[in-house]
Amino acid sequence: MLALLLALGSSLAYGCADFLGGLGARKAHVLRTVMIAAPASLAVELLLWPLLGASFGAGALGWGAASGVASAAAFAMLYRTLAIGPMNVLSPVTALVSAALPVGVGLTQGEHLGAAGLVGLPLALAAVVLVSAGRGAEMARPSRTALLLAFGAGAAIALQLVFLHQAPSDSGVAPLIVGRAVSSAITLAAAGLLHRRLGSERPAYALSATAGMLDSLANLMFLLAARSGDLTVVAVITALYPAGTVLLARSVLAERIHRGQLVGLGTAAVAVGLLALT
Length: 278
Known about the structure:
By secondary structure, the protein is mainly alpha-helical.
């Protein structure tokens, strides 16, 4: 149950972070947004170090660095994807791709689902589609570039989560700190190389920093959830994060929530209950 609650918290934090990051990327070049978000995430993880501890062994350093590379790619592609929009179409594409790889890894590593889990897992994946789509998706078709970015962002998120899960369970927040340091360095280096292409627009500092901090908390809750539960279940619950993105888009951007999306929210609740029994 603890793993389930942590996964739900991670999902909510990811959804809020994605929405704010997408809004920030509409105001300035995506790299300007990530330049603020990534260091803000690192600051949060450094503050957590004295509270949760960190052991910087070879496993934590290696898997943390790998997660950082994936995180840098995910930041850039995801925020650019959501900036292009429409959010209610592209967000579920990213979520489904980000769920598939961790679930596959968990099953190949010997995790087994009970009868309730075998029903809850596909229900949760269906809920991701329903809660993020609806009739509005039919009237706002994404471009090919946006879809490719959504697939790429989903794959990068999946790799980040898998790499974090592979880190030693006694390493504390070390994988998060190493990963965020690497992603911040990559982001700043890319911004330095491409500074002439970033335009003159000022980034949305508050939006970007808040998105980064929420992303850091989401990573922490996912890491703790994966350490106390099955990656297969934790990954698919975390992949429900489009619900937060869509609800915020409804509140702030006045994007409509259709009947199919409400059905998706109900389906998600049933799926979470079934997975809890697992």
